[in-house]
Automatic annotation (TrEMBL):
Post-translational modification 4-aspartylphosphate, affected residues: 55
Gene3D superfamilies found in the cross-reference section: 1.10.8.60, 3.40.50.2300, Homeodomain-like, P-loop containing nucleotide triphosphate hydrolases
Organism of derivation: Crenothrix polyspora
InterPro entries linked: AAA+_ATPase, AAA_lid_NorR, CheY-like_superfamily, Homeodomain-like_sf, HTH_Fis, P-loop_NTPase, Sig_transdc_resp-reg_receiver, Sigma_54_int
Protein name: Two component, sigma54 specific, transcriptional regulator, Fis family
Length: 459
């Protein structure tokens, strides 16, 4: 796709040179020699540039005032300023207003090319986020969290309250697959920030260094391999929400840095000198007990208290089993539509099995089971043979583990390896009445290993 570049420059020679140069590198270049002309192009003609390269002082005014006036009236664009004076106050203001960069004239075209390329990349990402935002907020309201159990109703009530207030931070807790991601989306797209971006980051998925530069961004040359400037996720989420999944896995020193950013509403890119203002709502999620972790020092207590002003705790499915009444028809209808099936009758024996199951993978496990059955269905009847749930007598919910010494685990991707590990240990401990020696024997391991893992998972 050919993108538009707007050049605002009253010096004829420079304007012509920039236009020619960027036309040759594949841009559609539009050149304005005054702010009035630029305004006409942006507002009336709606040229929608991805990038704007502007002189600082034009015959009819200052380009920063112009940027401030235009920014919210046009589609997302990155602004680059060129100036003959190199005045510091202007450059500070330019960055505070969200300008991408500030260059002194005469500028070297090779250098400008690098900046243009990374600014264009940044603007493209930001636009994509903006488009997703528009289509998404329709789908998420508190009603998207389904269930009539008292627990589910309490969650929905809390969500209605929370989407009406401008909270700055919040924690969502709950076992794997209980809907933490769903709740985060409801809170964002159902709240006052719905038209602004929601950015997600999984703190467990990235090594420390990468997580830091992803969150805070970096300047060119901040470390080996940092070619251009990169706006971090906190900046990308500006005005909106940053959803930090698995925040319990975040290294402690980064937690300190995050806390500072939340309290100051400012960040500093790696290798950068200036602070950039950010206005971000943080939604943090974890399937671990952050409160306990804060007590034992494996999570920063100050960050925990800052984030945990509001908490949404999601019930495990086995404790709100009546919610199956709504969840099952919901998922059956969803996969009917997706796969062109017409399952409409669920036999009583199927209901009985589904309700008796322990659901260690919670709603995600349920969703996977329903998907498999609907996809394999031949007609209107929900096919029992594809349930593949453990036999009733193996089920810890109905029988306890002690008599069978066995455990059921869904191997359909609904539980991650760590969740499985944690669940096994938790179950062995429950079964042994929290006797570490007995549990270690049952798992064929040493007391030390078990103690290490108990600490790791905060059991
Ligand atoms: N109460 C609910 N109503 C409707 N859908 C639900 C509900 N709870 C969970 N889901 C659905 O179940 C699936 C799993 O939920 P989600 O991914 O939000 O879980 P999670 O708590 O983030 O899990 P993890 O800890 O593994 O990241 C999603 O498809 C979600 O939409
Ligand atoms: Mg999740």
């Amino acid at each position: 796709m050919i993108e538009t570049l707007l050049v605002i420059e009253d010096e004829k020679l420079l304007g012509a040179e920039l236009s020619r140069h960027y036309q040759n590198s594949g841009w559609e270049v539009v050149w304005a020699t005054s702010l009035a002309e630029a305004k006409e192009l942006l507002i009336k003609k709606k040229i929608g540039p991805l990038l704007i390269i502007s002189d600082m002082n034009l015959p009819d005014g200052n380009a920063l005032d112009f940027m401030e006036a235009m920014k919210n009236n046009i589609n997302y664009a990155e602004w680059l300023f060129l100036t003959g004076y190199g005045s510091v106050p202007d450059s500070v203001r330019a960055l505070r207003l969200g300008a991408y960069d500030f260059l002194e004239k005469p500028c070297d075209l090779d250098h400008l090319d690098l900046i243009v390329a990374s600014a264009a990349r940044g603007a493209t990402i930001q636009r994509r986020i903006g488009e997703q935002t528009k289509t998404r907020h329709i789908r998420y309201s508190p009603e998207a969290y389904v269930g009539h159990s008292p627990q589910a109703q309490a969650v929905r009530n809390l969500l209605s309250k929370l989407t009406a207030v401008p909270f700055s931070a919040l924690i969502i807790g709950g076992e794997t697959g209980t809907g933490k991601g769903l709740i985060a989306r409801i809170l964002h797209y159902g709240g006052p920030r719905a038209s602004q971006p929601m950015i997600e980051v999984n703190c467990a998925a990235l090594p420390r260094e990468l997580l830091e530069s992803e969150l805070f961004g970096h300047e060119a040359g901040a470390f080996t391999g940092a070619a251009g400037r990169h706006r971090g996720l906190l900046e990308q989420a500006n005005g909106g929400t940053l959803f930090m999944d698995e925040i319990g896995e975040m290294p402690l020193d980064l937690q300190a840095k995050l806390l500072k950013a939340i309290e100051d509403h400012k960040i500093r890119r790696l290798g950068g000198e200036k602070e950039v203002a950010v206005d971000v709502q943080i939604i943090a999620a974890s399937n671990r007990d952050l409160e306990k972790m804060a007590q034992t020092g494996s999570f920063r207590a100050d960050l925990y208290h800052r984030l945990g002003v509001f908490k949404v705790m999601l019930p495990p499915l086995r404790e709100a089993i009546e919610d199956l009444d709504e969840l099952i028809p919901l998922f059956v209808a969803e996969y009917n539509a997706k796969a062109g099936r017409r399952v409409s009758a669920i036999p009583a024996t199927v209901w009985k099995k589904l309700k008796a199951h322990y659901w260690p993978g919670n709603v995600r496990e349920l969703r996977n089971v329903i998907e498999r059955c609907v996809l394999f269905a031949d007609g209107e009847i929900f096919p029992e043979q594809w349930l593949n749930l453990p036999k009733q007598e193996d089920n810890p919910a109905t029988n306890g583990l002690s008599s069978e010494n066995s455990i059921y685990l869904p191997l359909d991707g609904s539980m991650a390896l760590d969740d499985i590990d944690c669940y096994i240990i938790k179950t062995a401990l429950e079964q042994s009445g929290n006797n570490l020696v007995a549990a270690a024997r049952a798992l064929g391991t040493t007391r030390e290993t078990l103690r290490y893992r108990v600490r790791k998972y905060n059991l």
